[in-house]
From TrEMBL:
Region span, Disordered: 168-206, 260-287
GO molecular function: methyltransferase activity
Domain Post-SET: 122-138
Domain of life assignment: Eukaryota
GO biological process, one term: methylation
PROSITE patterns given in the database record: POST_SET
Polar residues composition-biased segments: 185-194
Protein name according to UniProt: Post-SET domain-containing protein
Keywords: Methyltransferase, Transferase
InterPro entries with a match to the protein in the record: Flavunoidine_N-MTase, Post-SET_dom, SET_dom_sf
């Protein structure tokens, strides 16, 4: 949060929120002074001090509907963004809830700004340092579905995302109509190259969908080859009764794993748990 000049009496939430002001931009923050169970109410966005904002979003508003923003008019403005937030700003119900881990005194108070904001007045580069950090934060409208996966989002953001998806699908259908059938199967059933003309490829949405189609086609092709070779191997074993022939590998008698003693001997391979170290290295592997 950029430096603010508060126009309200401070502290506004002194029982529950400790505000730490730093001179440098984006370094002020808030800590919890209270314990809240998971999904319990940390604070309410009451009117007043909240007021409905005239016009669009500003650095001092949170979005509460597709065209509705509210001025917080309180120290709640000092709650930073995090990509792994401790709070849920449920602006539809005017509640600020603890996240799934609850809150302890000293925990930093944060929420995921794109969970309320569709398009932000002041985008910034997130420095939360979390493994799932999304980097540039400018509102949900600029984020992919994958970037928004697993995050609590307000109803108006979910609605707007659904509309975006419908618009993208309609654009893709229109593009496909303009350029003919994109999935014309050839004689052997393999889809033909379906590259879009250059002018269309410049459109990022069309390009993203084209990439998705290309990779889906690769999966289809790989599955087709796998099926084919499996059917061929069945045919082979029917003809030769499963015996070694002409360089084909004979797996019978290997206990299912080539190069290892057959099942029933003392040796066993490590489990995936052991390999991942979860069992702490105290597991003896018999040899
Ligand atoms: Zn982040």
């Amino acid at each position: 949060m950029a430096p603010l000049t508060p126009h309200w009496a401070q502290p506004s939430h002194g029982d529950t929120q400790e505000v730490i002001i730093n001179e440098a931009e984006f370094t002020s923050k808030s800590l919890s002074k209270t314990t809240v169970p998971p999904f319990g109410v940390f604070a309410k966005m009451d009117f007043t001090p909240c007021t409905v904002a005239e016009g669009g979003p500003t650095y001092a508003t949170v979005q509460m509907g597709r065209n509705k923003h509210l001025n917080l008019n309180s120290d709640l403005l000092y709650i930073n963004h995090s990509c792994e937030p401790s709070l849920i700003f449920d602006t539809g119900n005017l509640n600020i809830l603890a996240g799934p881990k609850g809150l302890q005194p000293g925990d930093e108070l944060t929420f995921f700004y794109p969970s309320t904001e569709w398009s932000m007045a002041q985008p910034f580069d997130c420095g939360c340092g979390k493994p799932a950090c999304r980097g540039r934060i400018s509102g949900a409208s600029d984020m992919t579905d994958a970037e928004l996966e697993g995050v609590w989002l307000n109803g108006h953001i979910r609605e707007l995302l659904e509309e975006r998806k419908a618009t993208q699908a309609a654009t893709a259908t229109a593009t496909a109509g303009k350029n003919g059938d994109l999935t014309k199967p050839s004689e052997n059933g393999v889809s033909e190259q379906s590259a879009l003309p250059r002018d269309t490829a410049a459109d990022q949405t069309a390009q993203a969908l084209q990439d998705a189609l290309d990779s889906a086609e690769k999966v289809v092709e790989a599955s087709r080859r796998a099926l084919l070779s499996y059917l061929q191997s069945l045919q082979h074993s029917e003809v030769y009764g499963g015996k070694t022939n002409g360089g084909a590998l004979d797996f019978s008698g290997l206990g299912g794993v080539q190069g290892l003693p057959a099942a029933g001997s003392q040796r066993r391979g490590p489990t995936s748990r052991e390999l991942s170290g979860e069992m702490g290295g105290d597991t003896t592997i018999l040899v």
